[in-house]
Automatic annotation (TrEMBL):
<protein>
    <submittedName>
        <fullName>Phosphate ABC transporter ATP-binding protein</fullName>
    </submittedName>
</protein>
<keyword id="KW-1003">Cell membrane</keyword>
<dbReference type="GO" id="GO:0035435">
    <property type="term" value="P:phosphate ion transmembrane transport"/>
</dbReference>
<feature type="domain" description="ABC transporter">
    <location>
        <begin position="4"/>
        <end position="245"/>
    </location>
</feature>
<dbReference type="GO" id="GO:0005524">
    <property type="term" value="F:ATP binding"/>
</dbReference>
<dbReference type="InterPro" id="IPR027417">
    <property type="entry name" value="P-loop_NTPase"/>
</dbReference>
<keyword id="KW-0592">Phosphate transport</keyword>
<dbReference type="InterPro" id="IPR017871">
    <property type="entry name" value="ABC_transporter-like_CS"/>
</dbReference>
<dbReference type="Pfam" id="PF00005">
    <property type="entry name" value="ABC_tran"/>
</dbReference>
<dbReference type="InterPro" id="IPR005670">
    <property type="entry name" value="PstB-like"/>
</dbReference>
<keyword id="KW-0813">Transport</keyword>
<keyword id="KW-0547">Nucleotide-binding</keyword>
<dbReference type="InterPro" id="IPR003593">
    <property type="entry name" value="AAA+_ATPase"/>
</dbReference>
<dbReference type="GO" id="GO:0005315">
    <property type="term" value="F:phosphate transmembrane transporter activity"/>
</dbReference>
<keyword id="KW-1278">Translocase</keyword>
<keyword id="KW-0067">ATP-binding</keyword>
<dbReference type="GO" id="GO:0005886">
    <property type="term" value="C:plasma membrane"/>
</dbReference>
């Protein structure tokens, strides 16, 4: 089943068109990767999926994005609700300057959960979900800034999980991490797809090939090709995809 569908999605920053006629169906419980050269619109497209671009001055979006069949740009849609359901993890880990516990409890508290028992439970479940619980269970009250970069990124994933999303958008989540932390996050993503749908922007083609089920190749604001990852990397159907994945440009 498809969890997100876009129909003829177009986006302009002022007079510059960053996305052109994107039609995509993102399947549930899979990892979908976006690849393509710098500036081709991968992050812009990712951010439209939970309306993170709304606040950019001069932005104009046309076309349609359906989440569980509902148009997310319809006037009745509560953007806070949308961002709970479609969570986001950024390139650089961005822990809040507070304890690990408070980082994770932040979202649930904001959304009205104040029972100590419930919060304890959510914090534990979220940290377990992000494969971090065993490493931090004895230091929950310590500052999150004391964690390593890789731990901070898994904590940011736990923070996204704490408000019970069903889609996780990840914008180059490992590009600031060392190889071992990267491997841990890649393993984690494979676990996460059992319960969530994961969409990841990556600069690293090997990473897309290793972890994703489907890959979309972007070029100059267009989605050139979208297919099962294995097929895309072995038998791309568009010459431009082939040139990119064989390193002839980009
Ligand atoms: N806030 C903005 N205002 C104006 N132009 C923007 C803005 N954000 C992005 N752009 C432009 O839109 C195009 C797509 O940018 P985007 O960041 O989506 O590309 P990307 O494929 O994610 O690139 P990278 O891999 O370098 O992160 C680029 O030409 C970029 O300069």
């Amino acid at each position: 089943m498809d969890i997100i569908t876009t129909n003829n999605l177009e986006l302009w920053y002022g007079s510059f068109q960053a996305l052109k006629g994107i039609d995509m169906k993102i399947p549930e419980h899979q990892i979908t990767a976006f690849i393509g050269p710098s500036g081709c619109g991968k992050s812009t497209f990712l951010k439209t999926l939970n309306r993170m671009n709304d606040l950019v001055p001069g932005v104009k979006i046309t076309g349609e994005i359906l989440y569980h069949g509902q148009d997310i740009y319809a006037p009745e849609v509560d953007v806070t609700w949308l961002r709970k359901r479609v969570g986001m993890v950024f390139q650089k880990p961005n822990p809040f300057p507070m304890s690990i516990y408070d980082n994770i409890a932040y979202g649930p508290r904001l959304h009205g959960t104040h029972s100590k028992a419930e919060l304890n439970d959510l914090v534990e479940q979220s940290l377990r979900g992000a494969a971090l619980w065993d490493e931090v269970k004895d230091r929950l009250k310590k500052s999150a800034l004391g964690l390593s970069g890789g731990q901070q990124q898994r904590m940011c994933i736990a923070r996204a999980l704490s408000v019970q999303p069903d889609v996780l958008l990840m914008d180059e989540p490992t590009s600031a991490l060392d190889p071992i932390s990267t491997m841990k996050i890649e393993e984690l993503m494979s676990d996460l797809k059992q319960q969530y749908t994961v969409v990841i922007v990556t600069h690293n083609m090997q990473q897309a090939a290793r972890i994703s089920d489907r890959t979309a190749f972007f070029l100059l604001g267009e989605m050139v090709e979208f297919d099962e990852t294995e097929r895309m990397f072995s038998m791309p159907s568009d010459k431009r995809t082939e040139d990119y994945i064989t390193g002839r440009f980009g």
